[in-house]
Amino acid sequence: MAQDVSHTPIRLSDLRRAHAADATLENLLNTLTGKIEACSRLAVFEYEAGSEGHPALASAFRELAVTERESFKTLLTCLQRHLEEIPAADEAHRAEPARRGRQ
User: Distance between CA atoms of 82 and 29, rounded to whole angstroms?
Assistant: First the structure.
């Protein structure tokens, strides 16, 4: 029985190892990693700007963090779709030599 990928926790490193030759997957994972790092830094930047009396900058960092989280969610949806497509692409790739052999 196939597992529902959306509810199975998977580490980014596990995905990299499982699909090492997939450049698109690697690009998605690298971008997601960058987004995670950016979101965590932006919260600190917002706090520091506010603490140092720069409310406009704190607000800018907060708005940027919201934008980063939204783009992260978009990329996560793309990652899920890509992972769902991989088995179908792998199956088609494996079937190709068999089809050529019958011709």
Answer: 11
Does 82 map to a domain?
yes
- Domain-embedded: residue 57: yes
For residue 50, give its domain range.
21-102
Q: Is residue 30 part of a domain?
A: yes
For residue range 19-73, what is the model confidence (pLDDT) as tens digits? 556 888 889 999 999 999 999 999 999 999 999 999 999 999 999 999 999 999 9
- Note whether residue 6 is domain-resident: no
